[in-house]
Amino acid sequence: MSTTIASEYANEVKNVPIEHQFNPYSDNGGTILGIAGEDFAVLAGDTRHTTDYSINSRYEPKVFECGDNIVISANGFAADGTALVKRFQNNLKWYHFDHNNKKMSMKSAARNIQHLLYGKRFFPYYVHTIIAGLDEEGKGAVYSFDPVGSYEREQCRAGGAAASLIMPFLDNQVNFKNQYEPDSDGTKPRPVKFLSVEEVVQLVRDAFSSATERHIHVGDGVEILIVTKEGVRTEYFPLKRD
Amino acid sequence: MFRNNYDGDSVTFSPTGRLFQVEYALEAIKQGSVTVGVRSKKHAVLVALKRNADELSSYQKKIIKCDEHLGLSLAGLAPDGRVLSNYLRQQCNYSSLVYNRKLSLEKAGHLLSDKAQKNTQSYGGRPYGVGLLLAGYDNSGPHLLEFQPSGNTLELYGAAIGARSQGAKTYLERTLNEYLEVEEADQLIAVAVEALRQCLKDESLSTKNLSIAVVGQDKPFSVLDDDAVAPYL
Amino acid sequence: MNHDPFEWGRPSNEVYGEYNKTIANASPYPSMHTQQPIVTGTSVISMKYNGGVVIAADNLGSYGSLLRFNDIERLIPVGRNTVVGISGDISDMQQLEYLLEEMQTENNYDNQYADEEEALRPSYVFEYLANVMYSRRSKMNPLWNALIVAGVEDAKPFLKYVNLLGVTYSAPSLATGFGAHLALPLLRKVVDVESDVENTDLETAKRSIVEAMKVLFYRDARSSRKYSLAIIDIEKGLILDKNAKVEDMVWGFAKDIRGYGTQKV
């Protein structure tokens, strides 16, 4: 096999063999989901770890507590995800050293993660990153990032393998998209309101069990990290293992 | 007036085999305010007397945390202490990132020694003008180390460095057998504070000038300042 | 001007003559990174049990489809309670062996607690290897291996995986390569989730591994009958059997197979 290589201006056309190159990325499946409530936020992820059609592990958590009431997950290529989380946790540690143990705010954490991601703009971390916590007013906050550091604060966001399955469900159930007041004949949108922790946890469980049904890279279990002003607590629920 | 011919740099021996610059560095420690360290079989404790330049100024920080299991107190040139504590922070960090391992106190001591020793053998530099007490809890239990600018690092049950530290040393030598067996961290802190008192002349301990740190099993290195030290006065 | 950007930034041959590579003592080749494994070792398989871990790998080094070396040891003991099992490129494995040797030397240097409290632990060895693997992949120069680190730590079994991409994971039973498809389903019948481990004893675990090695020898063309099996037990420590052989095979059916051999149908 060979292919032609030439630039637009070349007066010489070279014929060289196609080289098989080492591929530094892989897809390790899994999906994550963050929702912000009025005075809390959750970040959930399934615990299945895959490559191609193999299940590597049924319990490999990918949502982590960092301290300062910040939880993080970087879903996609697992090695990059692990590296990114470790780097952020390390930055947080040095932030404490350098700023006399000052608590890092969510917006500072988000900006820092942008720099970590953009710093590898030309050899990106192949991950969809979400962080969750409370903002400076104590309101629930979720920030989501693309692989090269674009970020935005949102009410909710799904990431990873089944993001496209879960996100529309969230639009409908968290932001009440396409829901209208009864008797208004579809003219008055249903007003949005904050959901309770219980409602959100149930929503997350439903999202994950549905994603498990439809996506082969999602399953085994879901771990939900819940951030309140009291701190971070973890809940685990089994999912189908087929 | 007398002038010493062999103290211009830290690499030239005197005819009697001494490095005067290194000896002067040891003197710098004695100018610093006192700090005391003790360890039992369960904990290691550091206490220090903070100084302020005048009534309008803040107090000089004496105890620096390097990792969850390790920290130090200093006597002498504070900027030099900052450089060394920063170095230790980096080494602790490297160890936990690359090896998932707490830096052992023994290793920490060797690293500091090697760094200080380099200054005594390369031209143009000067020795560090600071003495350190390292307290930590690693896989082999609690440890207390004393670091000197000469590159010596020794492990001790009790140590005191800085101005009038001899008082504390004498006190600790006398009470060694009792505090070695102490179970509670609070009790060990009390011993250290009492030792520190032996070094006071004009001043007295207060919430303003006392700094305390404690570390043990399942007890991360934590520094107490201001109102938090009141129970120990 | 020459508008071909490929020619920009270098002395033109017309003016300076062809570049003489020997001047800068440069290699006549571009610097090369591992693009593919050459001599390879096949699967490593392992599982936890209530008192430790069992891990096994055969002794074959394949050169493509040629069974080239038949006495390659792919289970590397590190300290007294860790074994690293390595599959993939054998020369890269030997580089890893060197790094592990160096790690042990380093740990024994000026360390009065080297034999007990500050001895190397499986998690230390794993973290180090995972960092080596990930940093090499990030330089686009991978060590072409998949490894399993097995051992005991804090009186509990330890088992983790890392490969040439730096991807890491942990499970009560782990296998690399072909073993992930052929052996792992068998091992998961015994220990699928962490809670299964406490109900599994050494005998069961060892039997499962031995049986899985048999299946691999039957079905994996690049495997050998001779293999090594290590047990890292909380009480008994590290036991490495370098002379295990696949036994109790059934080949009676072979004589009836028609159409592949020299027999007349």
From TrEMBL, chain A:
Q: GO cellular component terms?
A: cytoplasm; nucleus; proteasome core complex, beta-subunit complex
Q: Where is the signal peptide?
A: none
Q: Tell me which InterPro entries the record gives.
A: Ntn_hydrolases_N, Proteasome_bsu_CS, Proteasome_sua/b, Proteasome_suB-type
A Pfam short name: Proteasome
Q: Which PROSITE patterns match?
A: PROTEASOME_BETA_1 (PS00854), PROTEASOME_BETA_2 (PS51476)
Major place of localization?
nucleus
Q: Which Gene3D superfamilies would you find in this protein's record?
A: Glutamine Phosphoribosylpyrophosphate, subunit 1, domain 1
One GO BP: proteasome-mediated ubiquitin-dependent protein catabolic process
Its subcellular locations are: Nucleus
Query: Nucleus among the record's keywords?
Result: yes
Q: Which UniProt keywords apply?
A: Cytoplasm, Nucleus, Proteasome
- Tell me how this protein assembles: The 26S proteasome consists of a 20S proteasome core and two 19S regulatory subunits. The 20S proteasome core is composed of 28 subunits that are arranged in four stacked rings, resulting in a barrel-shaped structure. The two end rings are each formed by seven alpha subunits, and the two central rings are each formed by seven beta subunits. The catalytic chamber with the active sites is on the inside of the barrel.
What is the protein name given in its UniProt record? LALA0S02e10704g1_1
Species per Swiss-Prot/TrEMBL record: Lachancea lanzarotensis
From TrEMBL, chain B:
SMART domains given in the database record: Proteasome_A_N (SM00948)
Task: Tell me the Pfam families matching this sequence.
Answer: Proteasome (PF00227), Proteasome_A_N (PF10584)
Q: Which domain of life is it from?
A: Eukaryota
* Entry keyword Nucleus: yes
Q: Name one GO biological process term.
A: proteasome-mediated ubiquitin-dependent protein catabolic process
- Keyword Cytoplasm appears in the UniProt entry: yes
Write out the transmembrane intervals.
Answer: none
Residue intervals of the Proteasome alpha-type subunits domain? 6-28
The cellular location(s) given in this protein's UniProt record come to: Cytoplasm; Nucleus
> Which keywords, in A-to-Z order, does the entry hold?
Cytoplasm, Nucleus, Proteasome
Organism of origin: Lachancea lanzarotensis
This chain's protein is named: LALA0S10e00452g1_1
Q: What is the role of the protein in this entry?
A: The proteasome degrades poly-ubiquitinated proteins in the cytoplasm and in the nucleus. It is essential for the regulated turnover of proteins and for the removal of misfolded proteins. The proteasome is a multicatalytic proteinase complex that is characterized by its ability to cleave peptides with Arg, Phe, Tyr, Leu, and Glu adjacent to the leaving group at neutral or slightly basic pH. It has an ATP-dependent proteolytic activity.
Give me the Gene Ontology terms describing cellular component: nucleus; proteasome core complex, alpha-subunit complex; proteasome storage granule
Q: Provide the family line.
A: Belongs to the peptidase T1A family.
Automatic annotation (TrEMBL), chain C:
Pull one GO CC term from this UniProt entry. proteasome storage granule
* Keyword entries, A-Z: Cytoplasm, Nucleus, Proteasome
- What job does this protein perform? Non-catalytic component of the proteasome.
Protein family according to the UniProt entry: Belongs to the peptidase T1B family.
Instruction: Kindly list the biological process annotations in GO that this record carries.
Output: proteasomal ubiquitin-independent protein catabolic process; proteasome assembly; proteasome-mediated ubiquitin-dependent protein catabolic process
Q: What is this protein called?
A: Proteasome subunit beta
Keyword Nucleus present in the record's keywords: the answer is: yes
Q: Which organism is it from?
A: Lachancea lanzarotensis
